Amino acid sequence: MKILDKLYSYTTKGIKLGLLNIEIILSELDNPDKNYKIIHIAGTNGKGSVATILENVLLENGYNVGKYTSPHLVKFNERIAYNRKEISDNDLEKYFLKIEKIIMKRDIEPSFFDITTAIMFDYFSDKNIDYLVLETGLGGKYDSTNVVQPEVTAITNISHDHSDYLGDTLLEIAEEKAGIIKKNVPVFYSIKKEEIKDVIKSKTENEYDVLLNHHYEIKLNNDDFKTEIKIDNEEYKLPLYGKFQGENFILAYSILKYLKIENKVIKSALKNIKWSGRFELISKDPYIFLDGAHNVDAAKKLKENILSKFSKEEVLVITSILKDKDTENILKEFSKFSNTIICTELKGNLRSQTTEELKKYAKNFYNKIYEIKEIKDAVKKAKSIENINAIIIAGSLYLVGRFKEGDKNGEKTEE
Predict the structure, then answer these.
(1) 3-state DSSP call for residue 84?
(2) Contact call for residues 370 and 342 (beta carbons, < 8 A)
(3) Which of 126, 144, 127 minimizes the C-alpha distance to 135?
(4) What's the distance, Cα to Cα, between the start and end of the chain in Å?
């Protein structure tokens, strides 16, 4: 689509942390972000899971719901969803052209994310949504989404990622994420590290530590890969797998109870939840899982999930990791649940490492290493190796997306 080529041309302007350009665009659009209630979510991992739970429950309760997430797996349109349906190509073009006129009129240089965020706000205003479930892109304080005055704010776990922009220490990153906290807006968070909690508490008295304030139990069902949560004497079955997904549910649940959503609605909505590319089981013979796991914390959570069901001798990893990620420590975590690795690459993605570059890191942790450039060939090879019962495709959401689209040359994307 030619409009996407024009939109992606703005990625050459780089990541710009700041709100001035998005504020100018929204003022020209008569501030469409003020026409609906917003749940604003920041955090390193778990934002998408929390957003998807909230989206499905709010829909089940009869609301019209918009959801904004990033990055996408296969198609850009995934990022902007109205009542679970992706924005159409025609609407994407219509709203982009409208915003491009503003850019020229005001002579500004917004970022790619400024423009996509403005498209989203305006589109959802015209759709007359009741709620927008709004995921930050990068950080929080200077993220394009942080122009809003939300109904409620959520912060998922905080760990190391995007250090070039957010800081080298967890406290620096926490400061950026906590930048979405607004006066008189409640903030719900699922965080265990006390020093990070202190950052949040220093910014507001209207804070709610969901893991501390609920009695709960989380059990993993590794037959059907669901997570069973008992909270406030009610039981819920979440079709997302992992102890951390149970914690994501408790965060979403706390917000939903604040919004006065009934338990029976929450239970009913859980049946519809799917979150593509997050410990997604696509085969049982052999087991094949897709998982973004593009930072160390996500790799650790993937390790917990795998070792709950498999021994490391029967697990093989197919990976591609972007150049700006902590490749060494991601592969170190992968090696704790697998003995065999296939290094592949994302042809056409300028941030993709080559198989040769990945192998240099993998040598530190693996004896059984294969280099196969095309993911479809990597999967074929993995299936041919004896005694492998589980194949894990992980290391980048773009790798997952490339697998899902059949290893065609994917669209340019940003993470």
Answers:
(1) coil
(2) yes
(3) 144
(4) 20
Overall residue count recorded for the chain in this entry: 415
CA distance linking residue 351 with residue 321, whole number of Å: 9
Q: Render pLDDT for 9-51 as a digit per residue (tens, 0 to 9).
A: 887 665 666 799 999 999 999 999 999 999 999 998 899 999 9
CATH number of 280-404: 3.90.190.20
pTM of the model: 0.89
Where are the domains positioned within the chain? Answer: 2-270, 280-404
Q: Which residue has the tokens 């979150």?
A: 275
Q: Is 154 helix (H, G, I), strand (E, B) or coil?
A: strand
Distance of alpha carbon 366 from alpha carbon 369, whole angstroms = 6
- Between CA 370 and CA 203 the distance in angstroms is 49
Burial class from Cβ neighbours inside 10 Å (0-12, 13-18, 19+) for residue 152 reads: buried
The CATH topology of domain 2-270 is UDP-N-acetylmuramoyl-L-alanine:D-glutamate ligase (3.40.1190)
Cα–Cα dist 141/18, whole Å:
8
**How far is 189 from 57, CA to CA, in rounded Å?**
19
Residue 364, both tokens: 């530190």
Pick the closest to residue 236 from 249, 252, 224 (CA basis).
249
Do the Cβ atoms of 376 and 342 come closer than 8 Å?
Answer: no
Give residue-wise pLDDT tens across range 314-346.
Answer: 999 999 999 989 999 999 999 999 999 999 999
Contact 25, 113 (CB under 8 A): no
**Cis peptide upstream of residue 71 (ω within 30 degrees of 0):** yes
